[in-house]
Amino acid sequence: MTAVVSVFSASPDGGRGLARDMAVRWALIEAGVAHDLRTLSFAELKTQAHKARQPFGQIPTYEADGLTLFESGAIVLHIAETHGLLPQDYAARARAIVWMFAAVSTLEPVIVEREVAVLLECDRPWTPERLPLIAARLRARLADLADALGDRPWLEAGFSAADIMMVCALRRPAAVLLLPEFPAVAAYVARAEARPAFMQAFADQKARWQADQARRA
User: Fold this and answer.
1) pLDDT computed for residue 117 by the predictor
2) Burial per residue of 185-212, b for 16 or more beta-carbon CB atoms within 10 angstroms, e otherwise
3) CA 94, 182, 16 angle in degrees (round to 5)?
4) H/E stretch holding 98
5) Cα–Cα distance measured from residue 119 to residue 138, given in angstroms and rounded to the nearest whole number
6) How far is CA 178 from CA 113, 137, 175, in A?
7) How many CB atoms lie within 10 A of CB 91?
8) Which CATH architecture has domain 3-85+197-216?
9) From CA 71, how far away is CA 54, in angstroms rounded?
10) Rounded to an integer, what distance in angstroms lies between the CA atom of residue 117 and that of residue 174?
11) Pairing between strand 61-64 and 3-8?
12) Which residues pair with 70 in a beta bridge?
């Protein structure tokens, strides 16, 4: 059965590959898994039909073989476990899964916190004092990541789902602004972005956004 992934019909990221479905589609392409897209408007995200798949009315969702999943990290973990995107060695596999959790639980919350402060709280009186504090926490996280990565090309012995989740977090704007301060991490992201599967997933999302813009013109 071909997997079906729910995505934005008009992604708000301007075709930059930042929507949450990016990690899922990248993983599917890396694994060579055929999939179709269910494109949804913002109004359709809140329908009962979609909320039966995703209780919070968000994207992405994943459906295959009678299984319906939501949350990009959980979906990527499922794809990784069933399609070989984790190391075969038991210990390395466990460490790769730990890195997947680190991406969504340790790195990404600080990154998103800064984006929320800039985009949604810029008019609040506390924001000018708060922004440097968030940036300091993010720098500390990136420094720790750089130390852990060292001179290795990937988080584990080879490319895995851990790198998909980590790089998707690191590509968010708040992190990208600081990457020049951490050359090893910047090079790590660039290596991932040069992978054919990433480039295809990125091009597909950008083409979908461009097609939507053309329809609106």
Assistant:
1) 77
2) bbebbeebeebebbeebbebbbebbeeb
3) 80
4) helix 90-102
5) 17
6) 15, 12, 5
7) 9
8) 3-Layer(aba) Sandwich (3.40)
9) 8
10) 10
11) antiparallel
12) 61
Architecture of domain 90-195: Up-down Bundle (1.20)
Alpha-carbon span 163 to 106, nearest angstrom: 14
pLDDT along the chain (217 residues), means of 10: 90 87 97 94 95 97 96 97 96 97 96 81 74 91 97 94 98 95 98 98 87 78
Residue 135 token pair: 């940036």
Instruction: Assign 164 to helix, strand or coil.
Output: helix
Structure tokens at 55: 């209780």
Instruction: Quickly list DSSP for 17-84.
Output: S-STHHHHHHHHHHHT--EEEEEE-HHHHTSHHHHTT-TTS-S-EEEETTEEEESHHHHHHHHHHHHT
Q: What is the pLDDT of residue 57?
A: 96
Domain limits, CATH 1.20.1050.10, in the chain: 90-195
The pLDDT, as a whole number, for residue 132 is 83
DSSP state of 179: G
* pTM for the model: 0.94
Closest CA relative to residue 63, chosen from 22, 3, 7, 21? 3
Q: Which residues of 118-140 are buried (b: 16+ CB within 10 A; e: fewer)?
A: eeeeeeeeeeeeeeeebbeebee
